[in-house]
Amino acid sequence: MEKTTITKDERADWRNMLSAPASTHTLIAAVLLFFSSLVIPFADVPTVCGIYILCCAVFYYALSRSVFAMLYYAVPCVLLYSLSQFLPGNPDPLILPTAFLALLVGGGCGAFLLIHFHDPRKHWCFFAIPLLAFGAAALITGDPVRGLLTLLPLAGAVVAGVCVLLYVRRTDASVLIAAALVVALAIAGVVTLGVMGGFHGNPVATLADALRESIASFLTESRTLYAEMGMTLPLTDVDIANTATMLVNLLPGLFLCVCSIAAFLVWRTLLQLLIAFRTLPKLPFRLAAFSMSKTSAVVFLIFYIVALFANSAEVTLFGTVCQNVALVLEPGLALIGFASIFSRGGARSCLSYVLALGLLFVFWTNPATGVALAAFFGAFHILAARFLPPQDNSNKGEK
């Protein structure tokens, strides 16, 4: 059983294990942090977004040397690309994937630098890079407030770096990083609303109405395009209105969900850097293992099922709250579910093959349902491991 707390001596021993990176690796991390910070204020420029996404793809492939491992980053980006088309004002659909990747790369590289320059006398080496990016963005755009967006990756970078130095468990670190991202993005949103004069009236209701109209408009245009191509999209005006309302109601859960996924991937990026840049010979189990408590599994199952019944006839406030809570827990449990089904260790039964193929089919035809089903598998796997532990048959037959 892994210890939840460690002593100061164990933490000091852990820090001594971290070796200094080569100057080339330090330079690579610094350059990536600079451009990841700088790209956020220019995420509305399609050319900048395309070049940056390509650079991120090359960077992650160089770290993992595996196309399959890149799916961890590609799947959320595809989801955000789809959601970008619902934003009001018809922004470029690459804006959300670009900002998401900037938070990941900037957070991971920034944490890597902070780990190796955690001495207070060397802090300037870490904080000077985002400040340079802020100065460049403010100079190019002529808008210092917009240039402040370059500081967003600092939130994840500082928390991730401190968590590694304190030898915090991966699950706890992911929660802390997610909380830092939520606070940073919320502050950025409030500042943006203030600059744009969005505090007149009810800004939340105004934003919800604008998103609802944008989603309904997008779905209506999609239905018209399908009709022109001779295909029928089974969406009535009532279905479009209900879908727009549902997506707007799920915005809090989607926001927290994206932040939790970003936190998980910031930590993953940092661990990959520590190994690829030879700072650590191998990853400790404490930093690499991801788990969720039985409480989170029970909460997900209860709230998801309650939301299904509460929203069966019509959307209710109680059902919406339950659905948002379940949505926040869904990514982590789905990851555990996928891992439990597709793990390669030991002999596989016919049932496990059927479950794996069935989950792949459902995920291919309906990704949202596939992720929810994987989350159910993950929740049951956690509860089974807790209440139905495997029996030790090593002494069977002995008297």
Keywords for this structure?
single chain; 399 residues; mainly alpha; 17 helices
Describe the structure.
By secondary structure, the chain is mostly helical. Helices cover 73% and strands 0% of the residues. The chain is built from 17 helices and no strands. The chain has helices at 8-17, 23-39, 46-64, 71-84, 95-116, 123-141, 144-147, 153-165, 170-195, 203-228, 237-249, 251-276, 285-288, 294-310, 317-342, 350-365, 367-387. Helix 8 (153-165) runs antiparallel to helix 9 and helix 12 (251-276) runs parallel beside helix 15. The longest helix has 26 residues, at 170-195. The protein is globular.
Please provide a brief summary of the model:
With 399 residues, the chain is mainly alpha-helical.
List the helices and strands and how they pair.
Blueprint: H1 8-17, H2 23-39, H3 46-64, H4 71-84, H5 95-116, H6 123-141, H7 144-147, H8 153-165, H9 170-195, H10 203-228, H11 237-249, H12 251-276, H13 285-288, H14 294-310, H15 317-342, H16 350-365, H17 367-387
Helix pairs in contact: 2-5, 2-6, 3-5, 4-5, 5-8, 5-12, 8-9, 9-12, 10-11, 12-15, 14-15, 14-17, 15-17, 16-17
What is the ordering of alpha helices and beta strands?
HHHHHHHHHHHHHHHHH
Radius of gyration: 23 Å
Mean pLDDT: 84
Strand content: under 5%
Tell me the number of helical segments per DSSP (H or I, 4 or more residues long).
Answer: 17
Largest sheet: none
Q: Termini distance? A: 28 Å
Helix % is over 70%
What class, by secondary structure content? mainly alpha
- In one word, what is the shape? globular
Contiguous low-pLDDT stretches (5 residues minimum) are 394-399
Q: What's the total count of β strands?
A: 0
